[in-house]
Design brief:
Layout lengths: L1 E6 L8 H13 L7 E3 L11 H7 L6 H13 L2 E10 L5 E8 L5 E6 L10 H4 L8 E3 L4 E6 L6 H9 L4 E5 L7 H15 L2 E5 L4 E2 L2 E2 L5 E3 L5 E4 L5 E6 L4 H8 L16
Parallel strand pairs: 1-2, 2-3, 7-8, 8-9
Antiparallel strand pairs: 1-14, 3-4, 4-5, 6-7, 9-12, 10-11, 12-13
Length: 265
């Protein structure tokens, strides 16, 4: 299957609505060249633009939902539309990922479980999600994660237990920790014998330069494709069936101990 990671530039001088429309146009441009399109984390506001979370928060089926659902339908692609600052009328804000089918229907919503900030920023401004989310495509099963989640391997092992074969990471990762970004993406791929598609942002928002360097990693931990630092659409063709082949040739997951069950087939 073919995937396009849209490493959109996020800068303070572009309004969220302008970027929303631009991102939708970039999704439509993938029609015929991708089966799956992935956007980064909090690309409407910027992942470090904490002061904008409350002012730009929207309901689940708000402006971003409407624009991205239409873009997915127009392009005929599965779309991980990145994340939004979601305003729950009955609770706190959440950092919520939206996944749409090629018909423009909501296939899944994932509220980020691990919030970054060490008792400030996102960690205090947003609530924590509680549910692991997978999405079954014709070619593979997606496991949906967001940015700081990448540092918590138990989350990914839980997704594998639920059948995940392709792990998506939508991020607003800072440039100063770019080495960790690549290293952790490869580690999650190797230990789970899964593809990792990790999409970050370019640009600088709230004074924080972004890492860029979106990356696709195969189940052996090899980098299949990697973007540069600037805005870019990284398109790659990968063999989703290679996950089962890798797990069959080197069946490490079945040797798990500590009372944990091997992953479902």
């Amino acid at each position: 299957m073919r995937a396009s990671l849209i490493q959109i530039r996020v800068d303070d001088d572009e309004s969220p609505n302008s970027r929303r429309l631009r991102a939708a146009s970039m999704v439509r441009e993938q029609a015929g060249s991708a089966d799956l399109v992935v956007l980064p984390e909090l690309w409407t506001t910027g992942a470090f633009a904490y002061e904008a979370f409350a002012t730009e928060a929207e309901p689940l089926e708000g402006p971003t939902y409407e624009v991205m659902a239409k873009a997915a339908s127009d392009a005929g692609v599965w779309l991980h539309a990145g994340t939004i600052p979601e305003r729950d009328p009955d609770g706190p804000l959440y950092n919520t990922a939206l996944v749409f089918s090629p018909a423009g229907e909501l296939a899944a919503a994932y509220r980020k479980i691990h919030r970054f900030g060490f008792d400030k920023g996102e960690a205090v401004l947003m609530g924590a999600g509680e549910e692991l989310v997978t999405v079954r495509l014709p070619e593979t099963v997606l496991g949906v994660t967001t940015c700081y989640d990448l540092r918590f391997p138990e989350l990914y092992r839980g997704l594998v237990d639920r059948g995940a074969e392709t792990l998506l990471v939508s991020a607003g990762w800072p440039e100063r920790r770019r080495a960790h970004w690549t290293l952790l993406a490869q580690a999650r791929a190797v230990e789970n014998q899964a593809y990792v598609l990790a999409c970050g942002t370019a640009g600088t928002h709230a004074g924080v330069p972004q890492a860029g360097h979106s990356v696709v990693v195969d189940p052996w931990g090899q980098i299949v494709a990697e973007a540069g630092a600037d805005e870019e659409v990284l398109t790659v063709e990968f063999d989703a069936a290679g996950v089962a082949a890798t797990r069959g040739r080197f069946p490490a997951l079945k040797d798990r101990r500590l009372g944990l069950e091997p992953p479902r087939r």
